[in-house]
């Protein structure tokens, strides 16, 4: 009964945010991140476009079959889609599944044709099929195209250099939380390749329960492009005892970690990933991750995407307070200034939480501050992200 009450209250809050003028994207992000995510596919059809700033009144026409003619990616896409049987609901009639597979091929080819700078990779279809099953082919085409030019952009380069750079964040995150696990994995020389399929499919390829997949998509769509690597880190940390009890060699540790458990405590892991992102933002980890050519990565361009998707409704009192704080901080120099921005205890934590919508653990009083601050705080505070 308590769950039903919470669910009804959350549904009401989501529709209130959708019906506000302008739409309260900040609240929608909080709803997508907080316990239970967006709850139903019907709601996802309405909210996912808002999280990605997709205009549902101006959707592209459905792609035609001519896309398949002389398309360099067609054969590989066809092979991958034919192997994707387990990504469709069990018990679905063959003719219905085959129809969806044809739509899946067309969506992928359509996005690639409209964006020649993007390169197909094996695993991309695992992401696209999730959108197809939730929102249908036409809306999925628009959402996937936006996603491909933002969150997934690094995976769609001609080389895997940027993907490797993102994987390089995994060990520094683990090191900040549990140096013992980090050192054990370093000694085993296991690397990070075990998490590659997690990252490039947003866990769609490795999780068997579709409910868990879409719950994670709610979370990732509302967050920074690097959030999947933080979630990968918390999975490893959740299994820290298993890791430390494993034989300290590459084969044993890789085998253990590549077999992802299906009964993970998803809500607590999502909450922990959000906390770690706030505690150890990418800007603090970039040097350790040895990331190269940061100007080309989705993580570095997220500021523009975030600002474009968040409604700008400044609160004048809060704005004045922040201006005064910024003027004070201008008097600081070098490392002292950096330290004050990144480690200022409670107030700054609220602002960081506001930027990402990570307000799950905040009290009611803080929510009021977060709600009004989110609309404009990114202008000042997103500098903490790479």
Q: Could you please describe the fold and organization of this structure?
A:
- The structure is a single chain.
- Helix 1 packs antiparallel against helix 2, helix 5 runs parallel beside helix 7 and helix 21 packs across helix 22.
- The C terminus is likely disordered.
- The chain is mostly helical and 386 residues long.
- The protein is globular and about 55 Å long.
- It contains 23 helices and no strands.
- It is a multi-pass membrane protein.
- GO terms for molecular function: GTPase activator activity.
- This is TBC1 domain family member 20.
- It holds the Pfam family RabGAP-TBC.
Which keywords apply here?
TBC1 domain family member 20; Cyclin A, domain 1; mainly alpha; Rab-GAP-TBC_dom; disordered C terminus; Helicase, Ruva Protein, domain 3; 64% helix; TBC20/Gyp8-like
What structural class is derived from the secondary structure elements? mainly alpha
The CATH top-level class label of the largest domain: Mainly Alpha
The best one-word shape is globular
Domain count, please report it.
Answer: 3
Extended strand count: 0
Sequence of secondary-structure elements: HHHHHHHHHHHHHHHHHHHHHHH
Radius of gyration: 21 Å
Ranges where pLDDT stays below 50 over 5 or more residues in a row are 291-296, 307-322, 337-386
Helix content: 55-70%
> Mean pLDDT, nearest integer?
81
Kindly estimate the percentage of residues that lie in beta strands according to DSSP.
Answer: under 5%
Distance between the termini: 44 Å
| Largest β sheet strand count, sense and barrel closure | none
The name of the CATH topology of the largest domain is: Helicase, Ruva Protein, domain 3
CATH architectural designation of the largest domain: Orthogonal Bundle
Number of helices: 23
Transmembrane segments: 190-207, 219-237, 350-370
Domain Rab-GAP TBC: 38-224
Subcellular location: Membrane
Protein name: TBC1 domain family member 20
């Amino acid at each position: 009964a308590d769950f039903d009450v919470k669910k009804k209250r959350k549904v009401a809050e989501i529709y209130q945010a959708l019906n506000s003028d302008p739409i309260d994207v900040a609240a929608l992000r909080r709803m997508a991140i907080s316990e239970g995510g967006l709850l139903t596919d019907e709601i996802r059809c309405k909210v996912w476009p808002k999280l990605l700033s997709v205009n549902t009144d101006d959707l592209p026409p459905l792609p035609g079959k001519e896309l398949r003619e002389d398309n360099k990616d067609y054969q590989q896409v066809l092979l991958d889609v034919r192997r994707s049987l387990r990504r469709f609901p069990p018990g679905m009639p063959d003719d219905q599944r085959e129809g969806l597979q044809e739509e899946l091929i067309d969506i992928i080819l359509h996005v690639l044709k409209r964006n020649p700078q993007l390169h197909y990779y094996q695993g991309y279809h695992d992401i696209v099929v999730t959108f197809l099953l939730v929102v249908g082919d036409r809306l999925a085409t628009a959402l996937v195209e936006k996603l491909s030019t933002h969150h997934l952009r690094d995976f769609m380069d001609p080389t895997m250099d940027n993907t490797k750079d993102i994987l390089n964040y995994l060990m520094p995150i683990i090191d900040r939380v549990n140096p013992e696990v980090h050192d054990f994995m370093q000694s085993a020389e296991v690397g990070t390749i075990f998490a590659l399929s997690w990252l490039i499919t947003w866990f769609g390829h490795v999780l068997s329960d579709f409910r868990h997949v879409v719950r994670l998509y709610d979370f990732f769509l509302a967050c920074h492009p690097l959030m999947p690597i933080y979630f990968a880190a918390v999975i490893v940390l959740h299994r820290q005892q298993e890791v430390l009890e494993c034989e300290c060699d590459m084969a044993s540790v890789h085998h253990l970690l590549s077999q992802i458990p299906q009964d993970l405590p998803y809500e607590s892991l999502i909450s922990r990933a959000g906390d770690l992102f706030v505690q150890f933002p990418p800007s603090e980890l970039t040097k350790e991750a040895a990331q190269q050519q940061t100007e080309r990565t989705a993580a570095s361009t997220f500021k523009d995407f975030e600002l474009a998707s968040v409604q700008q409704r400044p609160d004048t009192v809060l704005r004045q307070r922040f201006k005064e704080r910024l003027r004070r901080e201008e008097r600081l120099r070098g490392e002292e200034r950096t330290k004050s921005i990144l480690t200022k205890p409670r107030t700054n934590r609220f602002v960081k939480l506001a930027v990402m919508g990570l307000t799950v653990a905040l009290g009611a009083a803080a929510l009021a501050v977060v709600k009004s601050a989110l609309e404009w705080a990114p202008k000042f505070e997103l500098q903490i992200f790479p």
